[in-house]
Amino acid sequence: EAGVTQSPTHLIKTRGQQVTLRCSPISGHTSVYWYQQALGLGLQFLLWYDEGEERNRGNFPPRFSGRQFPNYSSELNVNALELEDSALYLCASTYGRTSYEQYFGPGTRLTVT
Amino acid sequence: KQEVTQIPAALSVPEGENLVLNCSFTDSAIYNLQWFRQDPGKGLTSLLLIQSSQREQTSGRLNASLDKSSGRSTLYIAASQPGDSATYLCAVDNMDSNYQLIWGAGTKLIIKP
User: Fold this and answer.
1) How confident is the model at residue B42 (pLDDT cuts 50, 70, 90)?
2) What CA–CA distance (Å, rounded) separates A17 from B19?
């Protein structure tokens, strides 16, 4: 069974640009979570999608947004990139809107110059 | 507000030793607690999930315990190996956080051959 996949693996952007990161959950999982892990910092919760709807949002500005598609895959969009957006972006999936084990993808390393 | 603390921040031990990593949390109203492993620059691997009604979980050389009343969890690693070197993170699923995991900062473990 395939795990959570993310694309791209690495990305380099310049300040002010926009970026889209993609995540495919484990087959059968309906919930997708996005996290940011900046260098030297802990994981920061970004967004949670379940059944196509945004269910919860962390303390990030509106330029961080996303969506979940009917096949439960998800996109994270970041507009007007800033240097401090440089981080590892992790996606996780679970089965349903209950307290189950989260399974993580390998992450997308975003560098903003 | 739930806070999760992991002590120590870093630990270096010789190969073969048994060791304990600690995780403490301030609010006992949790659904579960999860231990993860993260290799440098990589995603997270789920190690063990303990439901709030459980006292411990075991997987191979790993044993995780949970004492909700005292707000503590420990991850016991038996007969440590160099391949166990990684950062270990704990996260709690808080009852009032709308399924948002609350994360510790992690313990960086180095096993010396």
Assistant:
1) confident
2) 46
